[in-house]
Design a protein that fits this description.
alpha+beta, 2 domains
Amino acid sequence: MSILELFVSVDTFWQQFGPIWERDQLTAGHRRKRATRLSMSEIMTIAILFQQSGYRTFKAFYTQHVQVALRAEFPGLVSYNRFVELLPRVIVPLMVYLHTQVGPWTGISCVDSTGLKVCHNARIHRHRVFQADARRGKTSVGWFYGFKLQTASGRQ
């Protein structure tokens, strides 16, 4: 999907969702909501592009790619610090948008696990807090002592 197609999809969603979202927001006193040079659709598009980019950090993606190569697509670009301040505004709408893009359930699920270390390997024999529950385990990075956190995802 091109950047233009992604933006059109996000913007179409925002045109329908935005007025409802703005109307139903609770007001927190007289808190000022500064206007931005970037639209909510543009902020959401950049956040999605980062996930598709392959960059390890958002800062590198924004400063090295967006501000350099995508300036023509996003003429109202703001500084990295300002963009990071704007991201919390789009978290809920972005999650709703992504949920609308999920296809039908295929019966295929993805399972992943990660190690939760409770102590350094050299201190295993002295560790007492999780002595009854923690075990040695192995990940793609190496051995650890602790627990394995497993997550599964799939549309139901």
